[in-house]
């Protein structure tokens, strides 16, 4: 699904010209990102999402419906053929760097020194290095070295 199909014309955007605001309008609540996180970790059924997150059924129903309507999840028949399952679309998979960045920020700022937490590792068991935006030459970027061009 294209970004236009996900965003579309919506008069309810918090800030219609800001990609950050539009993204937050789509996935900025706690439960939506946890559903996306768990879908990336293999959750497929309503029951799995509820068990992993502890989310109330009515809220989970709403979030799954919203994420599906906005093209981040899709439904397909489960292998048993008796129920539907949820799978990430290309747009949903594209949130992976966002989830990783949130995780890495949380590892640095949401835990006390020495406090245990889960760790993201690659297929070889190596801790995933910090994600850092870089310019065309590979120089790290931050808020002091970038600017937003307003429309």
From TrEMBL:
<keyword id="KW-0238">DNA-binding</keyword>
<keyword id="KW-0805">Transcription regulation</keyword>
<dbReference type="InterPro" id="IPR036388">
    <property type="entry name" value="WH-like_DNA-bd_sf"/>
</dbReference>
<dbReference type="Pfam" id="PF01638">
    <property type="entry name" value="HxlR"/>
</dbReference>
<dbReference type="InterPro" id="IPR002577">
    <property type="entry name" value="HTH_HxlR"/>
</dbReference>
<keyword id="KW-0804">Transcription</keyword>
<dbReference type="InterPro" id="IPR036390">
    <property type="entry name" value="WH_DNA-bd_sf"/>
</dbReference>
<feature type="domain" description="HTH hxlR-type">
    <location>
        <begin position="18"/>
        <end position="114"/>
    </location>
</feature>
<dbReference type="InterPro" id="IPR011991">
    <property type="entry name" value="ArsR-like_HTH"/>
</dbReference>
<protein>
    <submittedName>
        <fullName>Winged helix-turn-helix transcriptional regulator</fullName>
    </submittedName>
</protein>
